[in-house]
Design brief:
Length: 279
């Protein structure tokens, strides 16, 4: 009976330790899980694109360009405001949707080690799993007089997303991939604005722009961080040439250190309790 009692005690102690470690390491393994999910979606997207003929891909991109042309004369913020609250738009959803799951492309930011799927819309559901395309902005296929807006969360405990977007600097490049076509953009403006200020997202005649958007300051989310890039020539292998600006994940490191400390502390305490009971 005494052996069984000790085994139960040990099981409880180790069970509590395991549960505590799961909670403490949640940011690390949750982010890893989300990265794996994003990688799977990106892989599936590329397979779906590879399964389409070159003519089909050209036709789909041409449709997106025609859609963008209709947006040129729309004024900001009215162009966004009139679409606010619309959950389904058949024309919009039918464009750049090769997998049929709402994924329209991929955004890659090598400087901060980010690669995310881009989905139609920017609803909470969409932003939990990747980046969203702002409905009312140009579709991300490039072209003159186009301005695409891509947004993603920052500071989620479960995923990195655009958490390190503030690490980008003027001159850094990011890349958009749509239907097998890769486009490079060089950062030329970094700005913080209020959520209702959309003037910096407007289309500028003759320019090909993409703006990446996330909340700021970190943990407060009272403003929006806008990182704008203009199109530059893309050459294969450009991604690996980008400088890195990776923030040290102090929160994860502190969680790991705290977890190890608590695990050792609980183990020592359990040993002492068993010894005291044995006297």
């Amino acid at each position: 009976m005494q052996i069984v009692h000790k085994l139960k005690q040990n099981a409880v102690v180790f069970g509590l330790l395991f549960a505590g470690l799961l909670v403490l390491f949640y940011p690390a393994y949750s982010n890893l899980f989300n990265q794996m999910q994003a990688h799977r979606m990106i892989t599936d997207y590329r397979k779906a694109v590879d399964g389409k003929s070159d003519d089909t891909k050209k036709q789909e991109i041409a449709k997106a360009h025609r859609y963008n042309t209709k947006l040129i004369n729309e004024k900001v913020p009215e162009s966004f405001a009139k679409r606010l609250g619309i959950k389904h738009d058949s024309e919009y959803e039918g464009l750049l949707n090769p997998s049929g799951n709402g994924m329209m492309g991929i955004v890659s930011i090598p400087s901060i080690d980010v690669e995310l799927p881009i989905y139609h819309y920017t609803t909470n559901e969409i932003l939990e799993k990747g980046a969203g395309h702002l409905f009312g902005s140009s579709l991300p296929v490039g072209g003159k007089s186009a301005h695409s807006v891509i947004t993603a969360h920052r500071g989620l405990p479960s995923a990195k997303m655009f958490t390190d977007l503030d690490e980008l600097r003027n001159g850094d490049k990011f890349f958009i991939e749509v239907l097998g076509q890769k486009i490079a953009y060089k950062v030329d403006r970094i700005k913080t604005v209020k959520p209702e200020d959309t003037q910096d997202m407007k289309i500028i005649e003759g320019e090909d722009l993409v703006t990446l958007v996330t909340c700021t300051p970190y943990g407060q989310n009272t403003h929006r961080l806008l990182v704008r890039g203009h199109r530059v020539a893309y050459n294969a292998g450009d991604e690996v040439k980008e400088p890195t600006h990776r923030r040290i994940p102090w929160a994860h490191i502190l969680c790991i250190m705290l977890g190890v400390f608590l695990a050792v502390d609980c183990y020592v305490l359990a040993v002492r309790l068993r010894r005291n009971k044995g006297r």
